[in-house]
């Protein structure tokens, strides 16, 4: 848009921060038949008051919520984002709730409880470079027969190395499984070779330690003990309630017996 091109560098830096780096919570809506993203004013105010914004250079300083409100209100004439009203939510479909319809409001102002639609797509440089790299990679694969001989030879040996590494990992996995099956019978609870081989750790940590006993984790025991404690704690109030009701049921009988005693004495007299 033409108005966005006339924005000062400081305004553009703040908008780029909000659009690409602030990680504001956004939702999807429908504006003019197209899907768009919109946010709440409070999210933008929190973003410009965050420590990440304070580290930016060549941006207006913001120290409190009032300054943030005034600064964001001054961005509205550049049409990076505009205030909108949300319509009623349409019925949810199979893929979840449908996006709400949005309508631009004539009276433009910035407040934390209002909603604003993004009309700025952000920095397109990274997206263009990523798209260009993808096109180059696809063309390179398609034109593989036209590669020089030494490149094709290098890719061939590289693929052999990857296949050999994958095969070595499969052999190690089979050997460690067979060894565990033997040791679980001879030396229970069994021994694992390279116990961290398939764990979510680094490459070097996957082969450390060399072996370890197949001991179940202690967290399960702690959870079971916690469940037993909760069951006991839940059973104790129930038992106390039962005893309380039993004593309450016995008290009327005793009072009735006491009430009958004077009548017995009068009958005897």
From TrEMBL:
Domain of life: Eukaryota
Protein location: Endoplasmic reticulum membrane
Keyword Membrane: yes
A matching Pfam family: Sec62
Coiled coil feature spans: none
Membrane topology reported for the UniProt record: Multi-pass membrane protein
Entry keyword Plastid: no
Transmembrane segments: 129-150, 156-179
Keywords: Endoplasmic reticulum, Membrane, Protein transport, Translocation, Transmembrane, Transmembrane helix, Transport
Region described as Disordered: spans on this chain: 220-269
Low complexity: compositionally biased ranges: 235-249
One Gene Ontology cellular component annotation held by this UniProt entry: endoplasmic reticulum membrane
Main localization, broad class: endoplasmic reticulum
Single Gene Ontology BP annotation: post-translational protein targeting to membrane, translocation
PANTHER family in the cross-refs: TRANSLOCATION PROTEIN SEC62
Family to which the UniProt record says this protein belongs: Belongs to the SEC62 family.
Stated name of the protein: Translocation protein SEC62
UniProt organism field: Malassezia arunalokei
